[in-house]
From TrEMBL:
Pfam families for this protein: ADK
Source organism (scientific name): Candidatus Shapirobacteria bacterium CG2_30_35_20
Gene: adk
Sites where the protein binds ATP: G27, C28, G29, K30, T31, T32, R139, R191
Protein name: Adenylate kinase
Subcellular localization: Cytoplasm
Function recorded in the entry: Catalyzes the reversible transfer of the terminal phosphate group between ATP and AMP. Plays an important role in cellular energy homeostasis and in adenine nucleotide metabolism.
Organism placement in taxonomy: Bacteria, Candidatus Shapironibacteriota
Length: 208
């Protein structure tokens, strides 16, 4: 076969947009993995939680409204979340990014998947790190205060437990939807950082 043709195909594949989301229970290490993935594939890393906290720090209209929900461990309403997320994605022309901490509920997943498809930049995959609350609790106990995100105002034991319960209530619906789309990657998160990252890369290489 013509090598020039093969090179052309390789170039086409390498230029394909890579639009990723990564989710998992609070404390599973998704932000760490998102940063590694962003570095490897030259993607823009967007932390949904950090975006919200940045808006709160700026005391923007959005931030003031969101603060009331976050401080009480509640989910920020979809319309507020989408305003800030879509603004960032639009600046990237909706391509070559990884968003961590989103979607948190099925409706968010459906809407963002449809929105990206409508803008001719479809979702590549939703990566899910699996880790039980018991395993996460062991991590927190072992790491102590260094494990905690000091920038968060919602890191009390009760609020952490609330986030875990919310995750448990919603993950199955998200999984079923994206499995049906052929865009769901399940990764065992109860391991050191390196093997988790290696498995994520292998999975991405199969579908990108």
């Amino acid at each position: 076969m013509d090598k020039g043709f093969l090179n052309k195909i390789d170039n086409m594949n390498s230029n394909k947009n890579l639009n990723l989301f990564i989710i998992g229970p609070s404390g599973c290490g998704k932000t760490t993995q998102a940063k590694l993935i962003a570095e490897k594939y030259n993607l823009t890393h967007i932390s949904m939680g950090q975006l919200l906290r940045d808006e709160m720090a700026k005391k923007s209209g959005f931030g003031i409204e969101a603060k009331g929900y976050i401080d009480n461990g509640k989910l920020v309403p979809d319309d507020l979340v989408f305003d800030v997320l879509i603004s960032h994605l639009k600046s990237l022309e909706y391509k070559n990014f990884i968003v961590d901490g989103f979607p948190r509920i099925l409706n968010q997943g459906r809407i963002i998947e449809f929105f990206l498809r409508k803008n001719n930049s479809p979702l590549t995959a939703l990566i899910h790190l699996t880790l039980s609350f018991k395993q996460i609790s062991k991590r927190r106990t072992k790491a102590g205060d260094e494990f905690q995100d000091q920038n968060r105002s919602d890191n009390s034991p009760a609020q952490i437990a609330n986030r875990q319960a919310f995750y448990d209530d919603n993950i199955e619906g998200i999984r079923d939807y994206f499995v049906g789309k052929g865009k769901f990657i399940d990764i065992n998160g109860n391991r050191p950082i390196e093997p988790i990252f290696e498995d994520i890369v292998k999975a991405i290489e199969k579908i990108k």
